[in-house]
Design goal:
Keywords: Signal. Pfam families: Kre9_KNH (PF10342), Kre9_KNH1_C (PF05390). The chain is mostly beta strands. The chain has two helices and 13 strands. It folds into two domains: 146 residues, Sandwich (Immunoglobulin-like); 36 residues, no CATH class. The strands form four sheets. Strands 1, 5, 6, 8, 9 and 11 form a six-stranded antiparallel beta sheet that branches. A three-stranded antiparallel beta sheet has the order 2-4-7, with no helix packed on it. The protein has a two-stranded parallel ribbon with strand order 3-10. A hairpin with a 4-residue loop joins strand 8 and strand 9. The longest helix is centred in the middle third of the chain and has 8 residues. The N and C termini lie far apart (71 Å).
């Protein structure tokens, strides 16, 4: 059973290509103080595509073995590659136990051709105050001294499309595949004309989870970019002169 791993960094790459993100921090076998900051860094692995071809990413904290693991919590949400090859997040001391080499990071990156998931080397979190489900606890303990994380998972997905493409017109609940599309945010009108309100799209059905959920099939959601633009210019009108009548006396009261 692989539980929900919140997100590490989602890479949208060409289908079935090797991932291009190689973690350099945390170091393999490192011990990090649980419940505090965790520093993450990576480099271009040299495989196509290059980091410059990627856009956003999500990083998640995972625990367990390479075959059976659980996503515990997000470390970085809505990351952008253009800000550099490093990020920082926070680990909660209650998300798991202190088991040697039980933890690793998962990164899912977004680009223009698909989705690829990379994993970091294993590391330990000390002073943890939580616990794992029985299956994950046993899986984490079975790792022993190994520091190798799970292998790269390439998931060929629907290509990222330009704003206005038909994918954005399909209601979210009716979409399929591991990449979903959300329409652009509405721009507030300059005048209110509607007398009543109605939803833009039909509601989605849901059920309350009573057991551990399966691994999510949706890797990322792409929101359509805004297409409007705003222009401004300097006001060249001369400022009005200060009043000289009773208003001047009134304003003068507040100078002290």
């Amino acid at each position: 059973m692989q539980s929900h791993c919140l997100a590490l960094v989602a890479l949208l790459l060409a289908p079935f290509v090797t991932a291009d993100v190689e973690f350099t921090k945390p170091a393999a076998g490192a011990t990090i103080n649980g419940g505090g900051a965790i520093e993450v860094a990576w480099k271009d692995s040299g495989s196509s595509p290059s980091l410059s071809d990627l856009t956003g990413y999500v990083i998640e904290l995972c625990a367990g073995s390479n075959q059976e693991f659980s996503v515990l919590a997000p470390v970085v949400e809505n990351g952008i590659f253009t800000t550099g090859n490093a990020a920082q997040g926070v680990t909660m001391a209650t998300v798991g136990a202190s088991i040697k080499n039980a933890y690793f990071l998962k990164i899912t990156s977004t680009g223009k051709a698909g989705t690829v998931i990379n994993y970091s080397s294993r590391f330990s979190l000390s002073n943890m105050k939580g616990s794992f489900p029985t299956a994950i606890d046993a899986a984490a303990k079975s790792v022993g001294s190994s520091t190798d994380g799970p292998p790269t998972s390439n998931q060929a997905g629907a290509p990222v499309v330009e704003p206005g493409a038909e994918q954005f017109d399909v209601p979210f609940g009716q979409q399929t595949g591991n990449v979903r599309f959300a329409p652009m945010m509405k721009v507030p009108p300059t005048k209110i004309t509607k007398k009543d309100k109605s939803p833009l799209y039909p509601t989605s059905s849901y059920s309350v989870a009573k057991t551990f959920l399966p691994i999510p099939s949706i890797a990322t959601t792409i929101t359509q970019s805004q297409t409007f633009s705003v222009a401004s210019r300097e006001n060249t009108a001369a400022p009005a002169a200060m009043p000289t009548d009773d208003m001047a006396k009134y304003l003068a009261r507040w100078k002290d």
